[in-house]
Amino acid sequence: EVQLVESGGGLVQPGGSLRLSCAASGFTFSSYAMHWVRQAPGKGLEFVSAINYNGDSTYYANSVKGRFTISRDNSKNTLYLQMGSLRPEDTAVYYCAREAYDISGSCDYWGQGTLVTVSS
Amino acid sequence: DIQMTQSPSSLSASVGDRVTITCRASQDITSYLNWYQQKPGKAPKLLIYTASSLQSGVPSRFSGSESGTDFTLTISSLQPEDFATYYCQQSYNIPRTFGQGTKVEIK
Asked: What DSSP assignment string belongs to A34-59?
């Protein structure tokens, strides 16, 4: 069974940092691209970042470029999102998601999400 | 970035109704359009990928179609478990962009 479990969320002050983790199991993690998607309270879904299967290629939304860094450790089956210079507008539930192995580019499995709150 | 415009933003319907949700892309995305369902407090769930392919395990009352840059999600006979918010997403390029969502409520 495919499982994605996020952790690392919490309350952080503006300007602070946080590292999110996503532990993957039930599939060959090193074969799949992975995404981070967020959802602010009461709002829609927003792409944050993506990384290819081996970590050589990374992609970011303009809203987080230069502040967030996506990475992965295929030996630990874990995806990360290092978040820095956090702003109140970064407050959201952060989901990790697996990109489907076909060419669709869709996200076929999602974690349950971890809440990040940026507030003083 | 490719803009995805979804309509309506909400709708009220009864069990058994046929429901249609539309998503328009700001440029050609060929068939790289996906649909997700999200229930309150839960993660999104993939329903349809590449415009019209049904994800494994998803009931056949869900279907997708396309016409140029216009895409449609249809629920042929709404069931109680279908009351949720639906999002389209383009996967033609990065950044992946989502529509603003359509909340399907009980009439």
From this structure: EEEEEE-TT--EEEEEEE-TTSS-EE
Under an 8 A CB cutoff, do A102 and B34 touch?
no
pLDDT for res A43: 97
Chain B residues whose beta carbon lies within 8 Å of the beta carbon of residue A95: 43-44
C-alpha distance from residue A44 to each of A93, A103, B91, B102 (Å): 11, 25, 17, 10
Neighbours of A8 (CB within 10 A): 16
pLDDT of A89-102, one tens digit each?
999 999 999 999 88
Rounded Cα distance, B59 and B15, in Å: 15
State chain B's maximal CA–CA distance in angstroms. Answer: 37
Taking contacts as CB-CB distances below 8 angstroms, the residues of chain B near A62 are 1, 95
Q: From chain A, which residues contact B within 8 Å (Cβ)?
A: 35, 37, 44-47, 50, 59-62, 95, 97, 100, 102-108, 110-113
Report the residue of chain A nearest B85, measured CA to CA.
A44
DSSP conformation letters of chain B: ---EEEE-SEEEE-TT--EEEEEEESS--TT-EEEEEE-TTS--EEEEETTTEEPTT--TTEEEEEETTEEEEEESS--GGG-SEEEEEE-SSSS-EE---EEEEE-
Q: What is the pLDDT along chain B (107 residues), one digit of tens a residue?
A: 999 999 999 999 999 999 999 999 999 999 999 999 999 999 999 999 999 999 999 999 999 999 999 999 999 999 999 999 999 999 999 999 999 999 999 88
